[in-house]
Predict the structure of Thioesterase family protein.
Amino acid sequence: MVSFFDSQGDQLVAEKLAISPWAPANLSGTGVCGLLARELEGYCPDGFVPARLTADLYQPVLNAPFEMRSTVVRRGSRITVADTALVQDGQDRVRASAIFLTPGAEPPGEVWSPSEELPGPPEGCMSPQGSPPLFKSGDRDWTSDFGANQNADRKITWQSLPPLIAGEPITQFQRAAIMGDATNHLCHWGTEGAGYINADVTVNLSRLPIGYELGLRADNTIASAGISIGAATLYDRTGPVGTCVVTTLSNARRQIDFSTNPLA
């Protein structure tokens, strides 16, 4: 079965999905965000749910052994905060923090929320064990053809992710974290490919996803002088789940043409 990582003894070995398309000696942000979520969800107390994950991707993570260094910042009756860092050769490469909250009754009254349709492909088109991603550009049909989506239209992706670790069921928090990193790809994929790299990823969740499929719809891209912000809505078959925001840096000299180098 396809996965991001395989376990060999006490170490995790990166599979193809976890390798960076920018530099084969490094791990991809998607796999790294999944690992950070996997580590942090171990600090979620009973009765709490993950509400926010923020990952700072300030150094490349090498395709090499690593360890996680974690701490609980606060454990309260309604909020818990935990931090973690991925360490290689004694040096922090990336760090992340998570907020876990206790769900409860909603306050009275009505508030505004968008009523836009969040489209999904036909049910049953993907496997629970993972399938190639589907994309939709503008009003076009869903397709897994990367070349057909290399344009300047608004993009949506629909994905069923394989396990993060071989032989270990992927959790809903891990799914959300991996999809959060894909916000860069979704918001910055234009007519010539993608030319930005993530400096951070933030996933805000009002609830955990339901089911094995997740959609991500680009909502906004704001760019100036080589720095760009991408924002997207994360959703499942039942409706919106949360929002994903990335801060990115121009990497034009190593721009990826996804029509010839797809992430699959």
